[in-house]
Each structure stands twice: as structure tokens, then as C-alpha cells.
Write a structure and sequence with these properties.
The complex is a heterodimer of chains A (about 350) and B (about 300). Chain A has about 350 residues and is mainly α. Helices cover about 45% and strands about 0% of the residues of chain A. Among the domains of chain B are: about 120 residues, Serine Threonine Protein Phosphatase 5, Tetratricopeptide repeat; about 70 residues. The chains are: A mainly alpha (about 350), B mainly alpha (about 300). Chain B: InterPro entries: Prenyl_trans_a (IPR002088).
């Protein structure tokens, strides 16, 4: 899956949401085309993101109702070629294993219902992956938070990643959930939001990771929900888009993180959904497909995934239902979590 | 352009081609440029676990072309350690690299590792100033500043005062810089419960936020700061009524200078049975006139006013 941006730009003239269309077929062929762009230099320069790129592309296709638009067996083959002996995934073959790509690997296998294939190819594969996150010591025994890899960069993104992957694998019991929950609480700020670590500025992306982890742990009772809901709803700007922090620009990906967070708090209705849908739809390239961060910029697979996920959460007609906590099709998370 | 295949220094290495996974490895793709050649040599030195000066040169070259390639950074860090390399030299190399790649994650983690090994923050605050020049809200830079403060205890005594003066300068440059406001909170109240219980400090900080609100009444950051102090110090909300009235009043519904002031007034009015109707009016003004994009939120707030 290429992470090359473009070729097109997002830009649909403003209008009422009921008048704007979603160019579903264009988006499907846009994502399919990304795998055929290996002759471009940027394809190789973005190799360190490849597995996440595949997750974004695949999720977008599932939400568009075209789960078979990428050949399933080849996708699985690629994912497993990124799996290391230690149970972690690298972004591409030959790249070190890292929490972020381990989560993407698990999410892709879950979406494709391919845990059995994993087991067939790597004996005890699920447990192996779960143990990377646990026994390899990625959880800090003292603070409860998680590192991305053995080098120890710590961030609430990695904590959420661990909760996401382990819950999909049915292995959440491997880690100290209470301790991790305590760490999330220590990242709560005076303005009601959450940052990357205790004291770090509130940021919509980090609010999403903290809130999603607390949702998985069943501990939303620890959140000052009105206060955080107010902070999140203040992220909507006059043009309908949402930003990541006060006084910053709107962006399609923040639109997802803010809106999904509001959904976890059951407060999606606190902002203007029509205006948000309108903003996201304006970021499409109606000719060649794909979404950009804001109208006028180049499209890419990352914003395509989060644009579609946002529209799905807004119940835009024709899209498959998304899970606000996992950013995966709801049917997939239901299947995995009921096991 | 750096070329490895013709360089006698690298003659002993056979580059390892790209494997893109899957049943049909893409090694066969005739794709040759500076980057893919360098990566071929990196794969080869990694395979034989070579840690040498030339590996530092090679990783430097690849990082220049593609600083987000996390595996390259990790291999470089390993090599520095194996060679017992002079870390001050490494920091000198890192400075311009960080300036070139403002949004990169790896560079900051690498820097943090090296500075904690050096155990000396000298020069780091100047470097941060340089970094904040082009992007004064850069999340990585502010997080790194917090790490420095924590790691070297820069919130106490003379160092603490210096940190406070510095962040005051940042807010002075741009009163809407939310990152700077967050850092002020971190410096003043982030090191324990002590300061939020200190009346003099609480008053000083409330005065600071109020002065900033006078400069830009619709700016969210100092309002959030003020609310944070009030909650933390358990100050009575009603003590802010006169302040809020300077920016909004129900007597002049067409002349509201700050929706945040109107929100605060509503909160104050909501506390007293006799003024609940006024709170309702304030929420209506917010829903219909001053912040209609969040109309459902203001209506929710109105509904929570129990009779």
C-alpha cells in the first residue's frame, strides 16, 4: 500500500450536505491504485509506515462496502512477512518490530478474520504477539504506561495500541490494566483533556487514545465527561471542521479523533454533524478519489481512512458502520470481542 | 550524490536488495537511486551487525534522506553505544537535522537518550528557542522541554524562576499559544499540590490569566487556565462575577465580547435558585447568537439547570 500523497487534491465546492455526494467508486479505485505505484521514489521513502498504510487502506475499503477490493491472501502474506520471531510486527520486512505496526498487523488480521491463518503459519502466533506486548517489558512496571519498542519512547498512543491489539486477540489479561488506567488518569489536564504523558498539552489525538483505552477497560466512570465533552465540542470551527488543539487549523483526521471521542462519551450531538459531514465531503477529490486533510491539499490514504470513518460515524448513507473505539468495521470488532 | 558501489571503503560489502514481502518479492524491480542503494548497504551491515564509523556515516546519509525511518535511528543509537562515540559531537550533528525535520518523532527520542546519558542540559534551552522559531506550537518541542524540566529539576528556585520568565516571554509573543499556557501550568502547578494551595501563587496566576483575557477576551487558553486554578484551589466561582461582567452582561445582550465570559456568568447564575432564569438567558444567548455551532451543547447545559 503506497503512502504517496496525491495525485489529486481534495476540493469540492461548499454546499449543503444533502447536496454533496460521496464518490464511493472513486475512493475504491484510488485505494486499489496505491498498490501499483511502486515505481515512485516516495513509495520506498514511506516504507517505514507500510503496514499502517495497509490498515488504513483496507479499513477504508471495508467501510466503503468493498472488502474484497484487495486480494485477501496477498494481504495476509504481506502482513505475516512483517512478523518477527519475538512476536512483533515491523512496518515492512526487515524493519524492527514496533508497537504501532504490531497493532496495525493485528487489526488487519482481525479485519480479514485471519487469526486461524496466523496460527496455521506460526504456531501459537496469537499468544506470541500478545507476549511481545507483555513479557518483552513494553509495559512500565512502575507507571503502567507503554513503550513503543525496546528503546523506550513512551506515549499514550502505545498504551492504547496495547489495549487495542490485546483486546482483539482476547489477551487483555496479560497486562496490568489497573496500572495502565492509573497512568491515563495521571495524563488528565486542567482543561479536561489528555496529552502524551503527565503534564503534556491536551491534544485531540491523545484524547482519543486515552478515552478509547478507558472504554476498552470499562473505566469511563473515571472521566469528567461534561468537562471533556465541552473541550471536545470547542474543537469545531465555523467551517464545520474540527481541530486538534485550541487555535489550530481544522483537519479531517482530527475530525475523526474528536468526533469518535464525543461518540464514546455519547455526546456526538453536541456539535453540528451536518457541518462536519459537509467539511469532510469537501476534502474529496471527485475525479481520482481520496481525501485530503483540508480542501485544496493533496489526498492520501491516511486522511481517506479517517474521512470515511468520520462519515460512517455520522451515519452517512451507504457506508458500513465503524467502531469508534477501534476505527474498524463494527461487525469485525463485534466478532472478535464476543469470542 | 553519495555512491557506495564505487567507493573502495565499501568494497567488502555486498548490498542486500529490498524484500517487499509476499509471494513475489519485489527485488527484481529495477529501481536504483541513491536511497535504495544506501538502504541495500544498511541491510548488509545490519545483517553482519557491523558497528563502525562508516556505519555512522551511512545512517547519517539515510536519515538525511528519510528521517522517519525508525529502524535506522535505532541502529545508529546502537552503533554510538558500541563505539563509545562522543555524544557532544552527536548533538552538534542533531541540531540542524532537527530544524530541517520539525514534525519528526525519532529525532526527539534520540536526543532525549543522548542528553540523559550526558546528564547535562547545557545549551538545550537555547536550542529549543531555535526550534520554536518556525513553529511556536510544535508538540514535540514542548514535550521535550517538559522532559528537560522534569529530568533536571528545573522548576525549583532560581531555575524555576528562569523557566517562568521564559514561558512568560512565550505568552507575551503570542497570547493565543495554548502550548505556552499549558507549559505555564506545568511549571507552576505541575510539580505537586503545594502551589495550588498557596494563596499568593493562586492570586498571582489568576491575575496573570485575567490580564491576558483583557488583551484577547475570546481566547480560550487563559479562560481554561483560570477555570483550572479555580477548580484546583476550590475558589468560589462567584468571586469572578465582576470580572466576567466586564466582557458580557445580560443587560446588554448585543454587546458581548466573550462567549467564555457569558459561559462563566451562566455557571455563576446557575448556582443560585434566584438567578437560574438568568443562567437560562445566558445559555440561550450562547446557543442562538454567540456560539450557534454548539447549540445542542448549550441546550444540554440549560437542561441540567434543575428547577
Amino acid at each position: 500500500m503506497s503512502l504517496v500523497s496525491g495525485p489529486g487534491r481534495g476540493g469540492v465546492a461548499a454546499g449543503l450536505p444533502q447536496e454533496l455526494s460521496l464518490y464511493m467508486d472513486k475512493h475504491v479505485s484510488y485505494i486499489q491504485s496505491l498498490d501499483r505505484r511502486k515505481d515512485e521514489r516516495e513509495y520506498w521513502l514511506t516504507e517505514h509506515l507500510r503496514l499502517s498504510g495497509l490498515y488504513w487502506g483496507l479499513t477504508a475499503l471495508h467501510l466503503l462496502g468493498h472488502p474484497d477490493a484487495l486480494p485477501r491472501s496477498q494481504v495476509i502474506e504481506f502482513v505475516l512477512s512483517c512478523l518477527h520471531e519475538n512476536g512483533g510486527f515491523g512496518a515492512a520486512p526487515g524493519h524492527d518490530s514496533h508497537m504501532l505496526y504490531t497493532v496495525s498487523g493485528v487489526q488487519i488480521l482481525a479485519t480479514l478474520d485471519a487469526f486461524d491463518e496466523l496460527e496455521a503459519r506460526v504456531q501459537g502466533g496469537r499468544l506470541k504477539i500478545g507476549q511481545l506486548v507483555d513479557i518483552a517489558g513494553l509495559q512500565d512496571a512502575e507507571t503502567g504506561t507503554f513503550a513503543g519498542d525496546e528503546w523506550g519512547e513512551r506515549d499514550t498512543r502505545f498504551l492504547y495500541g496495547a489495549f487495542n491489539a490485546l483486546s482483539l486477540l482476547g489477551l487483555l489479561h496479560l497486562i496490568n490494566v489497573d496500572k495502565a488506567v492509573g497512568h491515563i488518569q495521571s495524563c488528565a489536564n486542567f482543561d479536561g483533556g489528555y496529552g502524551t504523558s503527565p503534564g503534556a498539552e491536551s491534544h485531540s489525538g491523545q484524547v482519543f487514545t486515552c478515552l478509547a483505552a478507558l472504554t476498552i477497560a470499562g473505566r469511563l466512570d473515571l472521566v469528567d465527561q461534561d468537562k471533556l465533552g465541552a473541550w471536545l465540542s470547542e474543537r469545531q470551527l465555523k467551517n464545520g471542521g474540527l481541530n486538534g488543539r485550541p487555535e489550530k487549523k481544522e483537519d479531517v483526521c482530527y475530525s475523526w479523533w474528536v468526533f469518535s471521542s464525543l461518540a464514546m462519551l455519547n455526546k456526538q450531538h453536541w456539535i453540528d454533524g451536518d457541518k462536519l459531514a459537509n467539511f469532510i465531503l469537501q476534502c474529496q477529490d471527485p475525479q481520482m478519489g481520496g481525501f485530503s486533510d483540508r480542501p485544496g491539499d493533496m489526498v492520501d490514504v491516511f486522511h481517506t481512512c479517517f474521512g470515511l470513518a468520520g462519515l460512517s460515524l455520522l451515519k452517512f448513507p451507504g457506508l458500513i458502520e465503524v467502531d469508534a473505539v477501534y476505527c474498524m468495521p463494527r461487525a469485525v470488532t463485534k466478532r472478535c470481542l464476543s469470542k | 550524490m553519495v555512491n557506495y558501489s564505487d567507493d573502495p571503503k565499501w568494497a567488502d560489502i555486498t548490498p542486500i536488495p529490498q524484500d517487499d514481502g509476499g509471494p513475489h518479492p519485489l527485488a527484481a524491480i529495477a529501481y536504483s537511486d541513491e536511497y535504495s542503494e544506501a538502504m541495500g548497504y544498511l541491510r548488509a551491515v545490519m545483517a553482519k551487525e557491523e558497528h563502525s564509523e562508516r556505519v555512522l556515516d551511512l545512517t547519517e546519509h539515510i536519515i538525511e534522506m528519510n528521517p522517519a525511518h525508525y529502524t535506522v535511528w535505532l541502529y545508529r543509537a546502537k552503533t554510538l553505544k558500541e563505539l563509545n562515540f562522543d555524544l557532544k559531537t552527536e548533538i552538534e550533528w542533531l541540531n540542524p537535522a532537527a530544524l530541517k525535520h520539525l514534525k519528526n518523532y525519532q529525532i526527539w527520542h534520540h536526543r532525549q537518550t543522548i542528553i540523559s546519558q550526558l546528564n547535562d542540559p547545557a545549551g538545550e534551552t537555547d536550542f529549543i528557542d531555535t526550534m520554536l522559531g518556525p513553529d511556536s506550537k510544535n508538540y514535540h518541542v514542548w514535550s521535550y522541554r517538559q522532559w528537560l524540566v522534569k529530568q533536571f529539576g528545573l522548576w525549583k528556585g532560581e531555575e524555576g524562576q528562569k523557566e517562568l520568565d521564559w514561558v512568560d516571554g512565550m505568552i507575551g509573543d503570542d497570547v493565543r499559544n495554548n502550548s505556552a499556557w499549558n507549559h505555564r501550568w506545568f511549571v507552576v502547578f505541575g510539580c505537586g499540590e503545594e502551589n495550588i494551595r498557596d494563596e499568593a501563587i493562586v492570586n498571582r496566576e489568576m491575575g496573570y490569566a485575567k490580564a491576558a483575557i483583557h488583551k484577547a477576551p475570546q481566547n480560550q487558553s487563559p479562560w481554561n487556565y483560570l477555570h483550572g486554578i479555580i477548580r484546583g484551589s476550590k475558589t468560589a466561582l462567584s468571586s469572578l462575577k465582576d470580572f466576567a461582567l466586564q466582557f458580557a452582561s445580560l443587560e446588554n445582550p448585543d454587546d458581548v465580547h466573550s462567549s467564555h465570559a457569558l459561559d462563566l456568568l451562566a455557571m455563576i447564575y446557575a448556582q443560585d435558585e434566584d438567578t437560574k432564569e438568568k443562567a437560562r438567558q445566558a445559555f440561550d444567548l450562547l446557543a442562538n447568537k454567540y456560539d450557534p455551532v454548539r447549540k445542542p451543547y448549550w441546550n444540554y447545559r440549560k437542561e441540567t439547570l434543575v428547577n
